[in-house]
Amino acid sequence: MIAIYDGDEHQKFMERLDSRIKSHDKDIERMCNYHYQGFIDSIRELLQVRSQAKSLNSEVVQLDEELQASAASVVVKGEELVQARRVESNIAAAIENLSLCLPVLTTYAKLQKQMKEKRYYPALKTLEQLEHLYLPRVANYRFSHQMKENIPKLRENIKEASMSDLKDFLENIRKFSPKIGEVAMRHTAEHLRSDLGVVGKKKRQAPAPPNPFTGEIDYEPPAESTYDAEEDLSAQDLIDFSPVYRCLHIYSVLGSRETFETYYRKQRKKQARLVLQPPTNMHETIAGYRAYIHGIVGFFVVEDHVLNTGNGLVNRTYLDEVWNMALSKIVNALRTHSAYCTDATLMLKIKNLIMLFNTTLRNYGYSVNQLFDLLHEIREHYNEVLMQRWVQVFREILDEESYLPIQVSSQAEYDNVLETFPFHDQALEQLSFPKRFPFSPLVPKIYQQVKEFIYACLKFSEDLNLSQGEVDDMIRKSTNLLLSRSFSGCLSYLFRKPSLALLQVIQIIIDTGYLEEATVYLEEFVSNITGAPKEGHMSGRSQGQSCMFRVARDDAERQICDKLKRKLDEFLELENYDWLLVEPRGHASSFITDLIAFLQSIFLSFTNLPPEVAQEACKSACEHIAKSVLNFMLSDDVKQISMGALQQINLDTIQCERMSTPKHKQLLDLFMTWDWPTYFHDYGQDNSKYQQVYPNTAIILLDKLREADKKTVFSVLKKSERDKKKLLETVLKQLRQLAQTAQQ
């Protein structure tokens, strides 16, 4: 087109375009002419169609009206259906959402129920499911956020609740520990009676712990049971350990196991210290010891149970530490309180209780060697208590005894004595009845009591794991102490009684001699009941048997001497010397004669005494007589003594020489012979004839002779008397010089 306007072809183009239009018009006109009739026909038909269309339209309108009338209810139902479908859709959506929320709510309700029922470990598991499984599904809801925020508080509540249960458990276990210990010790006693060989070799197995999820105990009963179900109670039967297991699981899940272990062990150590505090009056009755020991056994049986079932809550190192701490306190407490005990029967019960205590704890794996050492210490105290008890027995026997030799009138009585005391005397057996034993009933009574003492000593040593030699040695030492210390002490106390007669003292010394001889039979008796060999004991011990009653015999000797002196004093008080007697009577004084007769009868009773005792008593009696006679002469009450009186005293002294030579005999000999030159010449020499005459004594006696001479009126007229007086003055002068020299 641009090319047409740019050139000269525009006119030509227009001409051609007109020509073309005209050509097309002719074609259109020709075509119209050709179709005109058809068009007229069509118009006519169209007019006919219009009438028909109107008729049809009216019919349609009528149908429409009829349709609308009939479809009005359908439309209403349709709208209702749409509304119903909308509600149905909403319900489906609500159900779907509730299906998501319902497990959350159900789980939360389950959680609350479990906590109410104190099933804290399952509650903790439920809480985990709620937090990690169900709450994420309903994260878009506000209540889920509240629950999520409340979960830490719920965990803390579970933790606190389980800890509260644990505290209740600890309080209950403290109350039930004595009962648990009592049951454990009763089981041990039953095992000891049924099978002594098993005790100490097999460790008692603790029952299985309850399932922490279900709370049930998985327990398989043994094939055979030696006890009734009601009697075979263990720590698990007496107390519920589930709070411990639950709390341990809960703290383990929450990552605080170490905190829980520390708390549990700390609390149990505090309870151990309380259990280890003995009652203040524990030593008074066995009930106090039982309560103390049952509490300790119960504590450690519980700990052993937790050790075996607590999944590491208590380990062996911790338990050994607590036991070692407790052991020293137990030993000290038992040692202290048993030291106060003075009842041998109670001490035997204490020993048996400690033995059962040892066996029970040893069966649970605890070391009890220190407790066995303690029993050895208590045994020594027990022997001392026995000795104190037998002191009372000995004193009762001594108080009731008459100390007269046993006299029997028949063979049955004779045999009865020999059954109670080992005595053999061929000469006595050959005598006819009535027969008299040399000892009093004291001897068999004491012998039998010593055997009873030996049995009592042996009773404590049973089951102490001592060898026969150790038991034998212990009993021998205790028996030796009983006789040499306790019985000798009773004798010494008896000898100090004023009511004890001289002959009774003599009989007691005789009795002690037979008791000493019987110690050989006691040693054989000890060897027989202990089973220890007899060799090596008799020879070593028999050498010292004569010294067993050495102290008592010394006391007896002193008592014999003292009582003999007091009896002699009764005769000496009858002294009636005439100190100015001119001539002696020619015979001994009457009191001296009676005194010598008494001594002779007494010395006859010394026949069965040990020779050294009899000799000492005789010597003491003679010295006392000599000293008393000398004191008579030297008494300040006697101002004058005549030669006749001295001669009478010399006659009395000669009578006393039949038993012993009095020390004052040299003094009397000097005055009877008037041998002063010899006295002065030999004075101070070891072989002096008058070695026992002291100058001062001679001076006193010479002064009294001089005073007696002054009473004689005519003595001054005789030359011999004057010479004698002069000699007396000379002797006195020399004696005073000797006395002054001796003082310098």
UniProtKB/TrEMBL annotation:
All residue ranges annotated as the Exocyst complex component EXOC6/Sec15 N-terminal domain in the record: 16-185
Matches recorded under Pfam families: EXOC6_Sec15_N, Sec15_C
UniProt keyword 4Fe-4S, yes or no: no
GO CC annotation terms, alphabetical: exocyst; membrane
Region called Disordered, residue ranges: 200-220
GO BP term, example: Golgi to plasma membrane transport
Keywords for this protein: Coiled coil, Exocytosis, Transport
Domain named Exocyst complex subunit EXOC6/Sec15 C-terminal: residues: 370-704
Function: Component of the exocyst complex involved in the docking of exocytic vesicles with fusion sites on the plasma membrane.
Family per record: Belongs to the SEC15 family.
Identification of the protein by name: Exocyst complex component
Record organism: Timema californicum (California timema)
Top-level taxonomy: Eukaryota, Metazoa, Ecdysozoa, Arthropoda, Hexapoda
